[in-house]
Design brief:
It comes from Alloyangia pacifica. Its EC number is 1.1.5.3. This is Glycerol-3-phosphate dehydrogenase. Pfam families: DAO, DAO_C. It is a single chain. The protein has about 525 residues and is an alpha+beta fold. The protein contains 14 helices and 20 strands. A hairpin with a 5-residue loop joins strand 12 and strand 13. Helix 1 packs across helix 8.
């Protein structure tokens, strides 16, 4: 770990190991800044592992006239896709149309249409949806992703799972992303460029000490305390950004954060094709139904106020029922709670712009620097996973006003670890890996390439059989992979492995997960004793 003293302070101390904190750390380290990052839990252990897992422009944000946000997100889809084609890939979204579809009543477009066309009573006309999709196709300078098409839902794979009343749909492009793996890869790349990444390290207090920040931390596992010094503090605490401002650094600030809970359900696989559905409800809200982990369907999300970042977000019975009922307005075969195999929920730390509802609150990011009392602090509000890299670049612009940086923006087009192959090269990489390691089979090989890209071969090394990879924990998870995740990707517990570095928790039994946790704990204890 990089030791910081008043004589050798870090340039930046980042609080928060979610996507914004790790994205800023990576960008700053790549510009020659010395960076220390502290995350009180595991990387991506809060909001950044609980998204809907999409790199998307935010089609519905056009109704709120957030054109700048949508433009930036649409441009970023393809920038990010090129940098990480293992954990991100194009997907086609099917938007079934029916005359009863309605606007969320508080959007600017809804209000304008209500005045101009009151007889529509909040319904979305087809021409308006098509106009929105035309803007979506052209706002971002799309080069890789195909544009919008009109589909018949009669006698087609896309129409087969849906109720007969849906006869046509619009199909457009966005991208999938493995959200928690994205965070880990940013942290790994930041560390490779010189940053110090400290997980399970809580910032207990920070205060200005002349031209520096003095930051007190505590190791969540051992209780060990330490003091760090930095020229600038970055508060990327996500849901805790307000708590950091008011409780950790005692900063007088009127800036606020609005906590909005988004919940998802995962069901058994509901249809056979690989496209996603964009469903619009009679209440004006939307949800997605997305192919997930080969054998499942992901459905979400909700928008509910959440009052306390320390209260663990869970998908409530009411939210689960809402998502099930929403999906049942579209699917021909109804689903029930018995079909749900897993739920998850995260808290979005949105900038409090005074919006009347959680749904209407802006998803754009806001960056505020306070340097009035000496050493500067940058507070990060809001943001969405698609624009994390641009948020980091914007943060570095503000940081550069206070800290000398050796170079300018660099992250666009630079591959993440394992992502150094063409966007259309995934299948070739799977074939190459299967050819070199025939014992894997296609399903296992695809999983490894999806997770590790070109580094999958490094992980497997000289193995000639599954036995060469050590103990098997179930669902193709081996000792060799677990060691890689502990050494290379900051994993310390079974939960880190099966719910964030992978989603093998969907396939492993409670007993298998417990056995993995015991093995990891024993390995950590041996490593600690050897130091």
């Amino acid at each position: 770990m990089r030791e910081t003293t008043p004589n050798t302070p870090a340039d930046l101390f980042v609080i928060g190991g979610g996507i914004n904190g790790c994205g800023i750390a990576r960008d700053a380290a790549g510009r020659g800044a010395s960076v220390v990052l502290a995350e009180m839990g595991d990387l991506a252990s809060a909001t950044s592992s609980a998204s809907t897992k999409l790199f998307h422009g935010g089609l519905r944000y056009l109704e709120y006239l957030e054109v700048r946000l949508v433009h930036e997100a649409l441009v970023e889809r393809e920038v990010l896709l090129r940098a990480m084609p293992h954990i991100s890939w194009p997907m086609r979204f099917v938007l079934p149309y029916h005359k009863d579809m309605r606007f969320e009543s508080e959007t600017p477009i809804s209000k304008m249409l209500g005045l101009a066309m009151p007889w529509m009573k909040g319904r979305r006309p087809a021409w308006l949806i098509r106009m929105g999709l035309f803007m979506y196709d052209h706002l971002g300078g799309r080069k890789i992703l195909p544009g919008t098409a009109t589909l018949s839902l009669k006698g087609t794979p896309e129409g087969a799972p849906l109720q007969e009343r849906f006869e046509r749909a619009y199909e457009y492009s966005d991208c999938w992303v493995e959200d928690s793996r994205l965070v880990v890869l940013n942290a790994r790349d930041a560390e490779a460029r010189g940053a110090t990444i400290m997980t399970r390290t809580k910032v207990t207090h920070a205060q200005r000490d002349g031209a520096l920040w003095r930051i007190a931390t505590e190791d969540a596992e051992t209780g060990a305390k330490a003091t760090h010094y930095a020229k600038m503090l970055i508060n990327a605490g996500g849901p805790w950004v307000g708590d950091v401002i008011h409780d950790k650094i005692d900063l007088p600030s009127r800036e606020g954060v609005r906590l909005v809970r988004g919940s998802h359900i995962v069901t058994r696989k509901l249809y056979d094709h690989d496209k996603c559905y964009f469903f619009q409800g009679t209440d004006g809200r939307i949800i997605f139904a997305i192919p997930y982990e080969r054998d499942f369907t992901l459905i979400g999300t909700t928008d509910a106020e959440h009052d306390d970042p320390d209260r663990r977000p869970v998908c409530t019975p009411e939210e689960q029922a809402y998502l099930i009922n929403f999906a049942n307005q579209y699917f021909a075969q109804s689903i029930s709670a018995e079909d749900v195999v897993w739920t998850y929920s995260g808290v979005r730390p949105l900038y409090d712009d005074g919006a009347s509802s959680a749904t209407a609150a802006t998803r754009d990011y806001t960056l505020k620097v306070d340097a009035t009392g000496g050493a500067p602090v940058l507070n990060v509000f809001g943001g969405k996973i698609t624009t994390y890299r641009r948020l980091a670049e914007s943060a570095l612009e503000k940081i550069g006003e206070h800290i000398a940086l050796k170079s300018g923006p660099w992250t666009a087009g630079v591959a993440m670890p394992g992502g150094d192959f063409p966007v259309d090269g995934f299948d070739v990489l799977v074939q190459t890996l299967s050819g070199k390691y025939p014992f894997l089979g296609e399903v296992w090989a695809r999983r490894l390439v999806r997770a590790y890209g070109t580094e999958a071969e490094t992980l497997l090394g000289e193995a000639k059989s599954a036995e060469d990879l050590g103990r098997g924990f179930g669902a193709t998870l081996t000792e060799a992979e677990a060691i890689w995740l502990m050494r290379q990707e900051f994993a310390r517990t079974a939960e880190d492995v099966v719910w964030r570095r992978t989603k093998l928790g969907l396939r492993l039994s409670a007993e298998e997960i417990s056995a993995l946790d015991g093995w990891m704990r024993s390995r950590r204890e041996r490593a600690d004793a050897a130091e």
